Structure formats: structure tokens, C-alpha cells
Amino acid sequence: MKILFCIYQLDFADHIALAYLSAVAKQRGHQTFLCILHTDHLAEKVAFIQPEVVAYSANIWGFKEMIKAHKEVSQTHRFVSILGGPQATFSPETFAESGMDAYCMGEGEWAFRDFLACLENGKPFDDVENLITARKSNPVRPVINPLDDLPFPDRDLTLSNSFLKDTLKKTFYATRGCPYRCNYCCNNLLHELYKGKGPLVRRFSVERVIQEMEYVKARYKMVFVKMGDDLFAPRADAWLEEFTDKYPRRIGLPFNCFLRFDIVDDALLVLLKKAGCYSVHLSVDSASDDIRERILGRQMKKVAVVEKLKLIRSYGINTWVNYMLAAPESTLKDDLNTISMSRKGQVTYPAFSTTVPMKGTALYAYCAKHGLIDPATFVGDMSGCNRPSELACFSRKEKKIRFNIYLLGAIIARLPSPLYQLAIWLINIVPPNKWFLKLRQKYYLYNIENNIFRLHSA
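^ that's the sequence the OP posted. Answer follows.
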């Protein structure tokens, strides 16, 4: 069979879920193709390829556009449709309106394998675990464990068929699952969905990860590696020691990974630096311990953030630190303190975003309960992270100042006195404007290419 995978948009990290699904399909002897709605025309792709299956992967952002395109092409072409990803997993109630033949919840590889087997044998797929159909809604199967049972991901599907083949940074994943349940994250829903179904947090073997990297490095441009895991290294353990031995010898490229402040120590940093770690992503979320724990559910408790940042810097590792502005119940002082915290901790690049309660999360429920959003009209997609807050608890002036922190906070944190104090005064007085936006864009791009991902030497 010919299978056309369809996503709304491709970012600078290729869609790893499609790579695994494509690998599963190819194992069964099928051909796979890619359509990116943001740049491709679905109807033209379907007309040219004539697929028997169109497999969509969707989240909230772009879902409406995807459904519209699907319904239009379904009027002139016959194929079996299935949709997976965050939209199907966290909003299964949208199945009826989607026009799809099936939704796939949760991890999709083995469900997709069984779905294809049914089609191959001309049998109905209503009883396949993880699938929702017009006739039945099935429970999810246990998590895939061990992860090495999966076929190697078909990285060529997205890399060869997009601009990503020429990008200098490539993204890899050593793990699946996150052990934490922050109130703003859909991960807490995964914990509930897979309760009693096996360990949500799992690791590929080091050898498996290295072999995937070797495959990509041999075929595509690659001067920097980003580990996209929610938490790459929870501690200095035997897995990380093996990675530290093999990665420098066989890959030997600088890399970036995600850590948490409450697990950072000398033992961990020694191994990461030895492996070739160039920069790390960390999240503080709020400078207020109370907001961070009670409202955002970060589960980090009280951590000496500035001291931890200085410790990381002492190993020559650059830092990207995430802050969530305009969190419910936070004060303007809390958000301004994120700049001073970054300055004291010598953060390489402090990254600010506006707090957006995503549907299905505990934070969304909190905001709805307290009248901070109107569930009937609030969209709540990730694009809101780059705009002024939509929460009802802040005045227009407060929203403007907070958005100025988003625009200029990273620059201000690096200024010496008295320019620092002058800049703080400026963002409290001058409204957000196109000049602030241009400054942010240039500063962001410079840091991404040079200080967080080392691409300038390529």
C-alpha cells in the first residue's frame, strides 16, 4: 500500500513520531510519503500519489486547517484515514467532527502496525487497541517497553523531503516520557492514560541512540546535536557513563540537552562536559517559589537557582533558562525578578514566554474555575506564548509591561549598571513596539546560532 503521512507544519526538529510510524509501515512492505500542509497542497499530493491510507498527525495548532483539507480531498478521492498525535490523545471528543475513519491515542507504533494488518487482510479495525472508530473506543495498550523493540526511525521521510536536510542541527531522542506532572503540561494526562500500563519514562539503549546518530551524520549535514528529551539525564548513572564514553568517540559533536535545576550537581556536570555538552535548557518558570509550586506545579520546591546557574557556568556549559510570564496570581515584581535572577546567574540566554493554559491541563481548569479565561472563546494554542497575556486577572498596563519583558528581558539581563536600571525603567514606561520586536529577533537569532547551538563555525 501507499501511505501518505500528513502534518500541518514542520519545525526545526523533524517529526520523530512520523519517522517511527513510517519505519513500521516499511517493515510491512509499504511505501510512505510526506505532506506538509503549510507548504504542500494535500489534494495535489493525494492525486499524484493515490494513497490507500492517509495518516495525519495533529495538535491543537493547525487542527482546523487539517480537518478542512481532509474533508475537501475526501470528496474526490477514496482512502482510509487515521489521525494521531496530541489532538487525538488529549481531545478524543473531536473524533466525530473530524471526518476521520479512526483516531489513534497515545503511542502509535504498535497500534498503527495492527491497523495496517487489518487493512492488508481486508478486516475491520474497530477492535485495535488505542483506536477510536465510529463503532468503538478502545483502551490504550501497555507502553512500548523496551524501546529498542521499535524499528529504527525512518529519518529520511522528513529529512530528505524538507528543508531539514540542509539544517546544521539535528535532533535526537534517547528517552520517552517525563516523570513530572507540571500543571501547565499535558504530560499529566499521559500519566493518567497509561496508569497501570507500564513505566511511562523509558530509555533507548546508548548503542541504539549512537547508531541512529551515525546514520544521520553519514547522510546529512550535521555540526550540532540537540537532545529533544523532556529530561535527558536525571542523574549521573551507568547509562550516562556509557554515553559519555561512546558519544565523543563516534559522534564527537557539541550537543544541547534539557535538565532540571533540582538534579544538577557536580557528578552530572562532569559527565556531560566530558561527553561534549555545549549548552543546557532549564526551566525556572517563575521567580516566585509559591507561584512555581502552587500554581504551575513545577515540583521543584526551593532550589538555589542562582547558585546552580553559576555551578553550570563553572563547567563552561552555556545556559538557556525558560520563564513563564503572567502566570495566574503572579505579580509584576515576580516577572521583573526573572530578569534580575538571570543577571545574577549569568544566564547565557533567558527565554521568556507568556503563560498559556492549554486545554485539558490542570492550569486550564484553574483558569476556567477562577474566571481568568472564557472556555467558550479561549483558543489556548502555543502561539499565545509569543503575545501579550489573555488572562483576565491583569490590567492592560501590566500586560504591556510583561510583554516588554518577553521582548527585551534577555537583552536587559546582560546590561551593566546603570544601563540595566535605565532599561528596567524604559520597559515600564514605553509600550511594546516594532523596534523592541526587531531587537528581540536579532538577539534571539544570534544567541541560538552561536551560544545555545554552535552553528557559527560550520
